[in-house]
């Protein structure tokens, strides 16, 4: 397996420290509000990575943290007149509702910063003892001049950084780019007793302390997060971790790219920030997962109404095939002979899927191979509904194949009939289709057909097609939204 390693800027062959046990840490949310859809790109992608490693026979310990001490949490608590813990606990609960709604597999650990204060304080003490940090007036700073490799992850050079651009200039600092490990708490803020006085940790130290406390290792295998965390957060984590132990902090760094809305970066000022919950209410979690995984994790993803319609169309085709396979399994009890070419194709697709996921977790290729399997299944002659024992054998094989592959990505696990109806409901709203008009035209067309008035029947069909309605005649006749 090869992974694009931000540290080396190369696609490196992955070799875990323990061949059978992989240690993986991904930066989780700061819990002060509902999370927007971009916050879930990492959660969805790294879920696939973990599941693929497990399928390859590895044990994976996956840690995904909650930052529950932060200026944004304190600000929100002050606005509502409650304790910061009330805010953090509320939004941890809300995040987990969204996470579960997406059907993602639970992590092995979800540490909270507040649960690791003793470990954080000990970590800072060790950095001071190692002469990598210094204390002034109850505030502890990391001295980046004492860490010669600073910038090796982001490839930033200190000389090129403008003091105050990313960090607040503080006259107490020995170097303007030194960052805070511990700071005194202001009145009304949460605080913990420490050798430097009552205070709270800086942002970067939290992840380093939790990683080394939970894994009890100097080096972990994989550290993930969004590309916005490369600098300064992950750069500072390396300085802290290696400044404490003298060993490499993490061997492989993986970062997912941003998303934008209609070609523009999501931002509050533009008013285009969409909460994940709002997206799932309007569309569906399946659509969000497919959106993210249909594009490589290191590529920018642009979300638009057209793109969402394309995803709905793709998912409808997949779920239609799943629905068909399930109906055949219910309708035919006797098992017949499996189509050898179809069986061979699915076996070949499994090899291709493995190759794509081993190649820097290429989920876009993975999705394309799922489509090849769907097309092959649909080509096996199901349309006339004269299903036999052979159809059942092929349906059973397909159903097992797509379910097993879908589980890795947390896709294709929903009830197919419900999903197909949901897709229609979404498109009816998006296209502002009046169902009563559709029903009236369909009824008039049926009457015309019964009277063998083909010109009249074709006229109503053309009106329906112009509205984006697809008609099915014969067995299972009805109508659906064009996808």
Structural commentary:
- Helices cover 48% and strands 14% of the residues.
- It has 483 residues and is of the alpha/beta class.
- The strands form five sheets. Strands 4-3-9-10 form a four-stranded parallel sheet, sandwiched between helices. It has a four-stranded antiparallel sheet with strand order 5-6-7-8.
- α11 (363-378) runs antiparallel to α12 (389-409).
- The model has no long low-confidence stretch (mean pLDDT 93).
Strand content: 5-15%
Give the low-pLDDT segments: none
The gyration radius over C-alpha positions equals 27 Å
For the termini, the CA-CA separation is 36 Å
Total number of distinct structural domains: 3
The average pLDDT score comes to 93
The strand count comes to 15
Quick one: CATH superfamily of the largest domain?
HUPs
Characterize the largest beta sheet: strand count, sense, and whether it forms a barrel: 4 strands, parallel
CATH class assignment of the largest domain: Alpha Beta
Q: Strand pairing plus helix content: what structural class?
A: alpha/beta
**CATH architecture tag of the largest domain:** 3-Layer(aba) Sandwich
Q: Indicate the CATH topology of the largest domain.
A: Rossmann fold
Estimated helix fraction:
40-55%
Q: Which series of helices and strands comes N to C?
A: EEEHEHHHEEEEHEHEEEHHEHHHHHHHEE
Overall 3D shape:
elongated
Largest sheet: spatial strand order: 4-3-9-10
**SS summary, helix count:** 15
């Amino acid at each position: 397996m090869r992974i694009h390693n931000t540290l080396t800027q190369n696609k490196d062959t992955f070799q875990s420290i323990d061949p059978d046990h992989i240690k993986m840490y991904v930066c989780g949310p700061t819990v002060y509000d509902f999370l927007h859809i971009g916050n879930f790109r990492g959660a969805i992608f790294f879920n696939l990575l973990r599941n693929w490693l497990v399928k390859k026979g590895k044990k994976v310990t996956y840690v995904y943290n909650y930052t529950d001490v932060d200026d944004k949490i304190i600000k929100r608590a002050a606005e509502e007149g409650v304790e910061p813990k009330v805010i953090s606990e509320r939004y941890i609960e809300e995040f987990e509702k969204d996470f579960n709604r997406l059907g993602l597999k639970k992590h092995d650990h979800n540490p909270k910063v507040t649960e690791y204060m003793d470990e954080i304080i000990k970590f800072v003490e060790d950095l001071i003892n190692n002469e990598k940090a210094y204390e002034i007036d109850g505030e502890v700073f990391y001295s980046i001049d004492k860490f010669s490799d600073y910038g090796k992850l982001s490839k930033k050079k200190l000389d090129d950084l403008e003091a105050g651009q990313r960090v607040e200039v503080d006259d107490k600092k020995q170097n303007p780019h030194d960052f805070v490990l511990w700071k005194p708490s202001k009145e009304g803020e949460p605080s913990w007793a420490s050798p430097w006085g009552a205070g709270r940790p800086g942002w970067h130290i939290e992840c380093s302390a939790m990683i080394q406390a939970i894994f009890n290792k100097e080096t972990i295998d994989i550290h993930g997060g969004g590309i916005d965390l490369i600098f300064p957060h992950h750069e500072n984590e390396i300085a802290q971790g290696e400044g404490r132990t003298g060993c490499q902090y993490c061997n492989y760094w993986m970062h997912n790219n941003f998303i934008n809305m209609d070609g523009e970066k999501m931002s509050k000022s533009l008013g285009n920030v969409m909460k994940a919950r709002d997206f799932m209410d309007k569309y569906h979690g399946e659509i969000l997962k497919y959106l993210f995984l249909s594009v490589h994790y290191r590529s920018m993803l642009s979300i638009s109404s057209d793109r969402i319609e394309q995803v709905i169309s793709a998912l409808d085709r997949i779920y239609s095939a799943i629905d068909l396979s399930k109906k055949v399994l219910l309708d035919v009890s006797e098992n017949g002979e499996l189509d050898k070419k179809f069986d061979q194709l699915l076996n070949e697709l499994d090899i291709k899927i493995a190759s794509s996921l081993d190649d820097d977790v290429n989920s876009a290729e993975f999705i394309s191979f799922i489509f090849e399997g769907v097309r092959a299944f649909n080509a096996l002659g199901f349309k006339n509904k004269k299903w036999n024992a052979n159809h059942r054998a092929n349906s059973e094989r397909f159903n097992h194949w797509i379910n097993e592959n879908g589980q890795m990505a947390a896709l294709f696990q929903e009830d197919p009939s419900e999903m197909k109806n949901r897709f229609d409901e979404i498109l009816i709203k998006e296209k502002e289709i009046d169902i009563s008009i559709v029903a009236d035209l369909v009824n008039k067309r049926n009457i015309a057909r019964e009277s063998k008035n083909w010109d009249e029947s074709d006229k109503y069909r053309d009106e329906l097609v112009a509205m984006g309605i697809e008609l099915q005649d014969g067995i299972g006749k009805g109508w659906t939204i064009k996808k």
